[in-house]
Specification:
Rossmann fold; 202 residues; two-stranded antiparallel sheet
């Protein structure tokens, strides 16, 4: 009887070790003496700021949803949402980041204007800037050479808000025609943004 019990326990231990090894393989870790270490990932090197437009969260729910999607895709990155009114706070936070951290700025409406103010206030590299229909009702700045890539979603509809344009060799302009308040919900634009983020994270 004792031999049977020992045999069963031995099998349970082996099965447990087998599944532990499978899990280690699945998450891409090295199993050395059962000491599992997480794989080093580029995802922990990104800091992503999503900036709301005039009216904050209420008028920028599409941007809040985008920020949530980005955070789920890159769980080891830090993704935060911000008001367009306080660009200096974002500048100060970026200055605390490691030089190896990838910085991305995404803004809608006046938040897109703020993207240009923030990037121009810094000497360090901005890996990606995305501007969803920045507003002609406030200043926009052409990007400096520290901005590696800037996606501009330029609205050509009839409303008096939005429509601002910035220029530069790193600016990629996509013309759209839709209600300004709908721009932040555009799935097509979100997909373009997510694809651009993916290229930064490679």
């Amino acid at each position: 009887m004792l031999g049977i019990v020992c045999g069963i326990l031995r099998r349970l231990v082996l099965v447990g070790l087998h599944f532990q090894l499978l899990e280690a393989t699945r998450i891409g870790v090295v199993n050395s003496g059962l000491s599992l270490k997480p794989r080093k990932s580029c995802h922990d090197m990104a800091r992503i700021y999503v900036i709301y437009g005039q009216g904050g969260f209420i008028t920028s729910i599409g941007m809040a949803n985008l920020a949530s999607r980005i955070a789920k895709l890159y769980p080891l990155s830090k993704v935060t949402t911000h008001s367009w009114k306080y660009p200096a706070q974002i500048v100060d936070d970026i200055k605390t980041q490691s030089v190896s951290t990838r910085i991305m700025l995404i803004g809608y409406s006046l938040g897109a204007n703020a993207v240009t103010w923030i990037s121009n206030s810094l000497g360090r590299t901005i890996d990606l800037a995305v501007c969803y229909d920045p507003s002609v009702l406030s200043e926009v700045k052409n990007p400096n050479l520290n901005v590696k890539r800037l996606l501009l979603y330029h609205n050509e509809d009839w409303e008096p808000i939005g429509h601002a344009i910035m220029t530069g060799p790193q600016v990629e302009k996509t013309d759209i025609f839709m209600w300004h308040l709908a721009v932040c919900y555009s799935e097509a634009l979100h997909q373009k943004t997510l694809e651009a983020i993916k290229k930064v994270m490679v």
